Amino acid sequence: MKISEYISKDVKALTLNSTIGEAKKLFNDLTFSHIPIVKKEHLIGSILESDVRTIDNNDAKIEEYKYLFDDFHIGIKDNWMEILKKFSASETNILPVLTKDNKYIGYYELTDVLHFFNDTPLLNNDGFFLVIEKSVKDYSFSEISQIVESNDAKLIGIFISGYKNELVRITLKISSEEINEIIQSFRRYGYNLLTEHKEDLLLEELKSRSDYLQKYLNM
User: Fold this and answer.
1) What span, in angstroms and rounded, lies between the C-alpha atoms of 161 and 170?
2) What's the alpha-carbon Rg for the chain, to the nearest Å?
3) What does DSSP assign to residue 163?
4) Less packed terminus of the chain by CB within 10 Å, N or C?
5) Same domain for 199 and 138
6) pLDDT at residue 67 above 80?
7) What is the reported pTM?
8) Which CATH number covers residue 39?
9) SS3 label, residue 158
10) For residue 201, what pLDDT band results from cuts at 50, 70 and 90?
11) Is 9 among the domain residues?
12) Buried b (16+ CB within 10 A) or exposed e, 39-55
């Protein structure tokens, strides 16, 4: 299932002509931290529930409070890792989605994205995590794949998890029972092994990010 299939349109965005009272009613009925504000299908921003609660005049137009709008969104083509990162950076449980023409088409809910995240092979499939390091100039994904597959193993996931002093850190998830052979192969090809255990640095980072986001699920 593609992450874009989780884009929701169940709740309509507010407009600049919507009132503060309408926004309060929506927040009363929902568990959203923010509500998107649109103008002619284009996202203007999102307004935070706690900011809306501080406004006494329920008849006032939202347009009068543009200075309270938060500016965050994600593109329809962005992957789940980028979406998860944006949720964390924006401290929200709803993330507006825009087309390549910057038109608002709906939103992601944090609960849905976390469910998708937990069901990915990266976390859900059996295997072990390996973090390797090599010069930015010398590594290649094709070489890494060849090393793994030459040991009769399957590469479940691979991505760059950091850069430092012209070295690139690459995290792999591998399905194999022959861990030692794979580790020795990487060493022969000049890769530094930063961890040989499932509880590696990236896994801890992903778990930490997931735990951090969990606090928004009950908002």
Assistant:
1) 6
2) 22
3) E
4) N
5) yes
6) yes
7) 0.62
8) 3.10.580.10
9) strand
10) very low
11) yes
12) eeeebbbbbbbeebeeb
